Amino acid sequence: PKLSGAEIRERFLNFYERKAHQRMPSSSLVPDDPTVLLTIAGMLQFKPVFLGRAPKRYSRVTTTQKCVRTNDIENVGVTSRHHTFFEMLGNFSFGDYFKKEAIAMAWELSTKELRIPKSRIWVSVYTSDDDALAIWRDDIGVPEERIQRRGEDDNFWASGPTGPCGPCSELYYDNCPEKGTAGADLGDDDRFVEFYNLVFMELDRDAEGKLTPLSAKNIDTGMGLERVAQILQDTPSNYETDLIFPIIQKAAKLANVEYSSADEMTKRALRVMGDHTRAVVYLISDGVRPSNIGRGYVVRRLIRRIVMKGRLQGIKGAFTPALADVAISLSDGCDPAVRKSAQRITTVIAEEEEQFSRTLAAGQKKLHDIVEAYRQPGSSSEVIMSGEDAFVLFDTYGFPLELTQEIAAAEGMQVDVAEFTAQMEIQKQRSKQARGQVDMGAQSTIDSLMGTMGSTEFLGYSQLEGEGKVI
Ligand code: ATP
Ligand code: MG
Ligand code: MG
Ligand code: MG
Questions:
Q1: Are residues 303 and 417 both part of a single domain?
Q2: What is the pLDDT of residues 138-188, one digit of tens each?
Q3: Which of 86, 92, 123, 168 maximizes ligand 1 atoms within 8 Å of its Cβ, making it the mutation to test the pocket?
Q4: Nearest CA to ligand 1 atom 16
Q5: Which is nearest to 290 in space by CA: 378, 351, 211, 342?
Q6: If you measure from the C-alpha of residue 72 to the centroid of ligand 2, how many angstroms do you get, rounded to a whole number?
Q7: Contact residues of ligand 1, CB 6 A cut-off
Q8: Does 443 reside within a domain?
Q9: Are residues 250 and 162 in the same domain?
């Protein structure tokens, strides 16, 4: 029988408890750390310990950590393995064991406890990390052909521009062992999926980029629960695992489609809805409310994306609370606090959906007016809608270009895409300048949100608060 997500989580934590680790709870998605917007990894709650600024209560700890990574939003629903919200299982050593033991335990956990076939596991090490390579090859017995040296982008881990960091070694699962080892590249995402990262945390980076050794050698690891579930449940992607799929099935039912036989774009939309619903539920549970700044802005954007995807799939009426209910019902093993706040969570989501639905309706009316104006006798350009008009619909009413194009096409009109794109560029430049005064801590998060969702929100969010502008 295949292991459920809950069983995998328990096996991981239990395995490390048997290896003398203290099981500790996940910290909030709202970190106690001004340099990061949201909790992006299990190590975050231990950052002061790594830096030697807080006393350690235990030398060995294991957790399952709620994480949100908005920088992965473009990959959500597209790749088989990225989410905004995911659970990161971790084992930590604060000046206790180091490389050799961390690698040995990771291997035992993966191959004996979780029974991932040895022949399917490949590993990466940091380019110059001969130690780690030798441990994998000589102590563990991984054939050298399945060990690859990789550079800073993949194998040097840091939680941010400053703070604790170090070289890392990652475990990958091979989806296509029949392809053999010749010419194989761990960067080949169709073939390999990274599931476990071991960080040899021994350095501290300051604002100038200077690296100094930490007072102790530490271990920080992260294993993606959804990815391991995908591997062990042998599903096409993380999204079909028991951790998420019930939400997607609910969305499919509301949209009156069958997920398995749906076309790729529909599937993507349903996956996005499943992903974002989880993120929103946990974020609201941790006290974040939709707003136009910082974390609240992330929640607002995520809810609006769910609503937009749902509407484009033909879902009418309020539907986000129904999706949230499913996500809440799946939350127990990860965070028991979620169920206790169920009422509050669904109310917040419902209110945001309602407000955004009004904005969408206003946008539809605006679009209708624009089309009508072009129809006026004597109107010069009858078949091309200006990029400026399309931009107003996008910027003020949250209409993605594709939606405007679709509606315009139904009226026999085309949209000036080049001009729309130019407007977007101007917009980006302007908001870049404005953002300087807004929320620096959120910089990278906001950058990625801007990239995929676009918006002028940061030019004047205060007067827009409550107006429900833009997705
Ligand atoms: P990738 O290269 O696939 O983007 P990563 O190297 O950015 O992953 P790490 O920072 O090493 O990821 O995080 C540790 C583990 O957490 C990864 O090995 C993976 O299993 C999981 N993980 C990371 N990002 C995501 C995500 N967006 N969704 C789901 N799981 C993730
Ligand atoms: Mg990544
Ligand atoms: Mg990686
Ligand atoms: Mg990694």
A1: yes
A2: 999 999 999 999 999 999 998 888 899 999 999 999 999 999 999 999 999
A3: 86
A4: 224
A5: 351
A6: 7
A7: 69, 72, 81-83, 86, 88, 194-197, 222-224, 226-227
A8: yes
A9: no
* Assigned token pair, 422: 């130019």
- pLDDT tens digit sequence for 273-292: 999 999 999 999 999 999 98
Task: List CB contacts of 391: < 8 A, sequence separation 6 or more.
Answer: 419, 420, 423, 424, 427
Backbone phi and psi for residue 48, each to the nearest 5 degrees, phi listed first: -60, -30
Strand segments, DSSP code E, in 175-242 are 192-205, 211-224
Q: Around Cβ 167, how many Cβ atoms within 10 Å? A: 22
Residue 289 located in a structural domain: yes
Is the domain of 358 the same as that of 416? yes
Tell me which of 71, 80, 81 to substitute to probe ligand 1's pocket, judged by most ligand atoms within 8 Å of the beta carbon.
Answer: 81
Residue nearest to ligand 1 atom 11, measured at CA: 197
pLDDT in tens, 190-228: 999 999 999 999 999 999 999 999 999 999 999 999 999
Distance between Cα 227 and ligand 1 center (Å): 9
- Residue numbers of the domain that contains 457: 244-464
Question: Does residue 469 sit within a domain?
Answer: no
Same domain as 267, residue 181: no
Q: How many structural domains is the chain composed of?
A: 2
The domain boundary, picked from 206, 233, 260, lies at 233
State how far the Cα of 469 lies from the Cα of 463, in Å rounded to an integer. 10
Pairwise CA distance, residues 225 & 227, whole Å: 5
Pair (210, 267) in one structural domain: no
Residue 470 located in a structural domain: no
DSSP per residue, 403-452: HHHHHHHHTT-EE-HHHHHHHHHHHHHHHHHHHTTT-GGGHHHHHHHHHH
ipTM of the modeled complex: 0.99
Say if CB 214 and CB 51 are below 8 A apart. Answer: yes
CA dihedral (73, 74, 79, 83) in degrees, to 10, reads 0
Neighbours of ion ligand 3 (CB under 5 A): 194
Closest residue (by CA) to atom 4 of ligand 1? 82
